[in-house]
Amino acid sequence: SHQVMIFSLRNDAEPFNAIGERGICQSTLATLCRPSGIFVLGDKELYVADTENNRIQRVRYNQTEGEKFIGSEGMIDFPLSRPATIIMDGLNGWWITQYDSHDILR
Prior knowledge:
Elements: E1 3-6, E2 17-20, E3 35-41, E4 45-50, E5 55-60, E6 67-71, E7 76-77, E8 83-88, E9 94-98, E10 103-105
Parallel strand pairs: 6-7
Antiparallel strand pairs: 1-2, 3-4, 4-5, 5-6, 8-9, 9-10
């Protein structure tokens, strides 16, 4: 569905939020195309491996539009090849798996 859904299992929690648009595969800051992996940093930031757009999007709490974090012309300008998974280690280093090149980046 080209979306990442965010919600809490607590009864008193705020309603869920969605990033991306259902059924729309585009490359704007508000859309995703085949999101694969996510990484949540505390309760303030969500990182999404936006696979078909060759980028990692960062979405801040209560936002529906992201910013290109890693990828060509991103905050970290590094070309990606269909990123699938993203993890941050204890030293603030990013680990990214990629479909096309069958590798793990750090």
